[in-house]
């Protein structure tokens, strides 16, 4: 590696428990009913461990695409209403942990979707 070489890795963090709560196609692997929030935190911790192993690599992360917008626009769906505490806790945990290792983050909230406007 040359001393002036810069490396960048882009990741997408997308595994909240009961993610995409209003859909059936992308439910994810963790369930809130099956200790999903703690499993999600372990998932985040594993990402942080890998980032720490490569301190010279800049990491840019997209955080939970569609998740918060989906939650807000579908609170009338029982699964979404039941997931709101886990979603908020999970996103906060992910951002705090990733921030601790200097990850640049984009929190996807889809303002146009939430406003139900075409952008």
UniProtKB/TrEMBL annotation:
Spans through the membrane: none
Gene3D superfamilies referenced in this protein's UniProt entry, alphabetically: 1, 4-beta cellobiohydrolase
The keyword Signal appears for this protein: yes
One GO BP: cellulose catabolic process
GO molecular-function terms, A-Z: hydrolase activity, hydrolyzing O-glycosyl compounds
Swiss-Prot/TrEMBL keywords: Carbohydrate metabolism, Cellulose degradation, Disulfide bond, Glycosidase, Hydrolase, Polysaccharide degradation, Signal
Annotated active site: 20, 66
Enzyme class: hydrolase
PROSITE patterns according to UniProt: GLYCOSYL_HYDROL_F6_1, GLYCOSYL_HYDROL_F6_2
Family listed: Belongs to the glycosyl hydrolase family 6.
Name this protein carries in UniProt: Glucanase
Naturally occurring in which organism (per UniProt): Macrolepiota albuminosa
């Amino acid at each position: 590696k040359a001393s002036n070489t810069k490396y960048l890795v882009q990741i997408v963090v997308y595994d909240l428990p009961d993610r995409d709560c209003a859909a059936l196609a992308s439910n994810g692997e963790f369930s809130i009913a099956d200790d999903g929030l703690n499993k999600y935190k372990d998932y985040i911790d594993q990402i942080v461990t890998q980032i720490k192993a490569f301190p010279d690599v800049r990491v840019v992360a997209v955080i939970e695409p569609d998740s918060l917008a989906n939650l807000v626009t579908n609170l009338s769906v029982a699964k979404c209403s039941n997931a709101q505490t886990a979603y908020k806790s999970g996103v906060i945990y992910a951002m705090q942990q990733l921030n601790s290792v200097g990850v640049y983050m984009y929190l996807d909230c889809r303002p146009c979707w939430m406003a139900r406007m075409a952008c």
